[in-house]
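Thread: quick sanity check before group meeting

JM: Hey all, I'm pulling together slides for Thursday and realized we never actually wrote out the predicted structure for the chain we discussed last week. Dropping the sequence here so it's in one place. If anyone has concerns about the input, flag it before I start.
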Amino acid sequence: MKNGARAGIVVLIIAVASASSARADAVLTFTSPTLVITSGGTVEFDGTLTNTGADDIYLNSDTFSLLFPDLTFDDSPFIFEAPLSLSAGNSYTGPFIDVTADVTILPGTYSSTFTILGGADSNALNDIASEDFAVDVASASSTPEPSPLLLLVTGLAMIGVMRMRRGWHESK
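JM (edit): ok, ran it. Output follows.
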């Protein structure tokens, strides 16, 4: 019985080792994994993708884990600027995704995961590398615009000057 259990463990270890060796080894790191945005604004997530494996890998597609109706994710920076493949030990540094916040979005932090798909050939869609990222939507400023504030101060100053003049004329 002990020999059967040992043999089963050995087979399991070999299966796990061969499955992990079939996966491409790459690491994705965003320069800033959390960016601040205001409603109506756009931010770009830049980073570095490094092929840490011994084989070349093809970069065929990407996906996001969570989508929010008030955020638009645009992966065209990665699709159009990243190379089609990475040789063993090489890296790509540059833009990966743009995120735009709708003008109606509520303040808060919105998290997602960006995953690059690819593998040993141009048809592979294995998970190559993933990176969590967050968009921190800042609340709109309640500071009045300079023009209305200037009008208010000017109006109050005029009222003050008129009252002072009226008081000066009445004292004579």
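AS: nice. The longest strand covers residues 126-138. The helical segments are 2-22, 76-81, 146-171.
JM: adding both to the slides.
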